[in-house]
Amino acid sequence: MGNIKIRTGNGLRARLATTVSFENLFTELVKNSLQNNATEVRIRYDDKQAIILDNGTGFDHVKDDTGLNEFEKYFVFGNSYTKAHKHLNLGQMGIGGKAANDKLSDMNNTHWSLTTKNKRNKCFRLTFKSSDEKYLDDIQPTLDGIPHNKSAIPYKTGTRIVIHNLDPNLTKNGWPDQQIHDNLQQFFNMLYFQTAKKNRNFKLFVNDKQIKFDQSLPGTKWKHETVKFNYKHNGKTQQASYTLMLNRVDPRTKHLLNCVDLVSYTRVSSINWDQKRLQRVFAMDDRFKHVTPRQLSQHLNSHIRGYVMCDALSDVKDDTGMSAKDLSHHRLNPDHPVTQAFLDSLYRHVGKDIIHTLNKKNDPNTKLSNTLNRVCNIMFKHFNIPDEFITTKQNTVQIKRKQD
Fold first, then answer.
1. For the whole model, what pTM was predicted?
2. CA distance 388 to 316
3. Strand, helix or coil at 117?
């Protein structure tokens, strides 16, 4: 009966757009700019359009050994092609940028354009329009060469994306300005300092206001160290590591960083310390003597802030070529060979000291000693007890017995 053609419905664009939120969508576009070797990215938006401009190397119109040029590669959904001389590898799914464009756009009347000035001193404009097409391959983006003075790109090379028809929710409700600023700052914060060490630091602007990155942490320094862990992949034991920058804080502390952030080059997500995993990790230990997994989880979530940085979550690929970061890049794939080994090691390493502290604090003998200490202090302050009958032992005020 012959072969059956596989078609991709145009509704896929709307489904993929749900993987990003309005607050996070610019992070995907900035990632693409940085992967295109940009050192300056400018975002501008109002109630009519959104513009993302960078000074990266632009899109090459010449086909390479894959048989595709970079415009054609851009529209291969699900495949990500490594750019020659790329300084950063922040994604490999070939979805994020297009999903962000569609999330910003009116899905019923989509119109966005991509203008580029490339290393061959050529300028092009790609125009994408879609309304009621049934299948993705019914959409035919156009590509035209344009004069340099029509590119609106002030750099030697670069790319300028314009969303011409905004999502109606944005035009009706306005832009979540503070959330956009905070998400960009948190998402790229650690990457900024990592690239600065290699003299590849970047500048990021939103409506002409520069995002300021800050590596300082609230609270008191606690765990700042690198930890190695083992994971199994294809029957072999491999080793990876993660770096901790964790501080103890008063839960009432006000700071942009109000949690422990998991970072793999860029921010993945906050870490919500799960009591079930804590119970399982320490199941073989007699450590929950005077503390419950729930109390430990609550303490970690409220008293510890900082960063956990693990490059292996991005660098190690499974048998399908995927990293531990899932489709959204804001969660971990639980079935990836690195994920469970990393989380178990992290929970064990961070949790053990807190368990010891809480066990000691909740020990009935410690509580009794503290109560007696408070009583003795009250007696000392309110009764005229001669000094020769007062002694201090292990921070406890005691009354001496009079010798017969």
1. 0.79
2. 68
3. strand
